[in-house]
Amino acid sequence: MAKAFFRLQKFLRRIQFLLFFLTAAYLMAGSLLLLQRTRLVIQQGSRGTPSNQDLLVPEEMGRVGILDPRTLQSPGPRLLVGMDALQEPALDQQHSPHWLLSRNSELRQLRRRWFHRFTSDQEPLQTAGFKVMKHTAEHKGTYMGCFTHDSRERTLKGAVFYDLRKMTVAHCQEACAERAYSYAGLAFGAECYCGNTLPAAAARPEECSSECRGEKGSVCGGVNRLSVYSLERLRAAARPRRNVIYRGCFRAPENLTDIFPASLMQPNLTVEMCSEFCSKKEFPLAVIRGQECHCGYPTRRFSLRQGADGLRCSGTRNASSAAGGQHCLVYQTPVQDTRCTDRKFLTTKSKVFVALSSFPGAGNTWARHLIEHATGYYTGSYYFDGALYNKGFKGEKDHWRSRRTICVKTHESGKTEIEMFDSAILLIRNPYKSLMAEFNRKYAGHLGYATDRNWKSKEWPDFVNSYASWWASHVLEWLKYGKRLLVVHYEELKQSLIPTLKEMVEFLNVTVTEDRLLCVENNRDGNFKRSGAKQKNFEPFTQEMKDLINRYILTVDEALRGRNFSGLPREYVPR
């Protein structure tokens, strides 16, 4: 019995030793494999490679999995092609569509990783019209109470603002007061409504219980409930956000009283008097003819598309000197045109999956603003940009494949990504403008500008050399793999907004009224337009950069004509 027990004990000791040895060998093999792969990546970054192979192959990046995201946010020479590529003898061959497609699949992978990190870390930006103010619990407006709110039939029919992260009572009051409104109302903790008429249907005080997103302890309405403030004291001290804008001299319609719903006859009428009257009536246009003041909207019968010679109208300060009868002076009041501000998700899933595709910096956000206001439906996004979501692009947070949005923003251009969509609006912008816009956005957000230090650093030439080819390959790949395309040039959309936007809306299979399109034109800029004054005459492109970009322009122009589309606008080529 003792011998049998001793043999069993000896056998178990051997098994223990064997298991320990196998475990140690397994761990050592794994460590050696990891070290070998790490060494491979380091060697690839340290040894010289041809310029079109400076980027890590996407498959290798996914396999190794140790690429530092900070490297993508501030790409150095190892990740972006050096400017010496501009002087390579085989430049002509590199500009072929085949080379562009293969090379830029790598760039696309890099930017996708950088984009997601950048948007998640980026601090949301201020909407135009909101000033940076200290959050205080003391509000200057007079609280009027809690009222019912219907987003489809609003009582406060003036301007609307969203800030889904930083809304405060003070922000809303200030924004409405600067636009000459008498009341400010807050709902859902993040939405601000302005108007000149106090809502009629009061609600119980406890129904306004939503805390302001940007101010703890303050109430910003509730679900379908408005916390309303009177702004009489605040309006008296508020400085207008912008002056009344002179729209021009126009031929007067035959019967102004039929076209405009509000009118005023006043001896010695001035622009200020007419603008104040129309602002109180909540109309965006003030029309002056002699001693007559008329208020209303741009309509089919008075579209403001064909202005008259300014000499036909005399005086912009004193309206009584304006030519009576045939022509009239038109001014834009601080009141927002709200006929096209209502938006919602599709009630049923869309049967056609539509992309709004563009190279970064080509005006995709602006196009989304126009489409949303023209159709009344939210647009989605392949990404998630918190700054856009916080300012009212609610489709940002919806899953991009939900089919609850009218179209989906994307900068992707791979075969797989393109073939997921049934059709696409392909938005193209002058590459010179696109590159500058994307560089500004990369370093200063949607509304800012890159600093002089950024422009003069090595990052700018590296950026141009890599992103210019991506601009070309983006168009080429959508032309090759896109199933049904509508090509829209940013410059044409800007110059002929109504006809081009109408074509886009028809492509999306949505019917809209002429008045709604005119409302979009009246609100054309949106909240993410950079001021063009700061860099109006700025020229950051060297001659080598221009030669490179011009080659890509010619390649894209030829490809568009080969697919029976109109070529690029003449202003693209060459500088």
From TrEMBL:
UniProt GO molecular function: sulfotransferase activity
Keywords, alphabetical: Repeat
Alphabetized PROSITE patterns for the sequence: WSC
Coiled-coil regions listed in the entry: none
One family name in Pfam for this protein: WSC
Domain WSC per the UniProt entry, residue ranges: 140-232, 243-340
Top-level taxon of the source organism: Eukaryota
SUPFAM superfamilies, sorted: P-loop containing nucleoside triphosphate hydrolases
Family, as annotated: Belongs to the WSCD family.
Full protein name: WSCD1 protein
Source organism phylogeny: Eukaryota, Metazoa, Chordata, Craniata, Vertebrata
